[in-house]
Amino acid sequence: MSELDRVRLFLSVEHVCGYLPGRSSRNAFIDPDFPLNPVRYGWLLDQGFRRSGSHVYRPYCQQCNSCLPARIPVRNFQPGRTQRRCQAHNADLELTIVETLTDEHYALYRDYLQARHPGGGMDAIEMESNMNTIN
Fold first, then answer.
1. Residue 131 phi, psi (nearest 5)
2. How many CA atoms lie within 13 A of 26 on its CB side?
């Protein structure tokens, strides 16, 4: 195993769980200096890690294993009745892939963070630091 294949983990302080009410949580973070590439990032995803901005982390709670990542085999997916209804309701929406992020994209991201993760350590500060991608 080379030095580049060793991953250092950092453990966060305990905080309010963002998934389950009335519980506390901790996160294990990948060393921010660890060089990521698509193969390493894929391996980390397979191990249950997630990404928020430039942070790659996974829940690490001593008394709880409830936060399990969901992996859906897309080729075998069959939408249920509720999902088909939702799709019909949103049939007028269009998906456009863009190369550059705008202030409007960032405002949407910031609103999402404030609504879903207020005070959860994922607060948006600067667009550049929160909208990074894995090379």
1. -115, 30
2. 12
pLDDT at 123: 56
Backbone angles phi, psi at 126, to 5 degrees: -130, 140
Span 81-91, pLDDT tens digits: 999 999 999 99
Domain membership flag for residue 126: no
- Cα angle, residue 23 at apex, residues 19 and 29 outer, rounded to 5°: 65
For residue 108, give both structure tokens. 């949407």
Sequence-separated (6 or more) residues with CB below 8 Å from residue 112: none
Q: Which domain holds residue 39?
A: 3-67+79-117
132 confidence band (pLDDT: 50, 70, 90): very low
Residue 97 placed within a domain: yes
How many folded domains does the chain comprise? 1
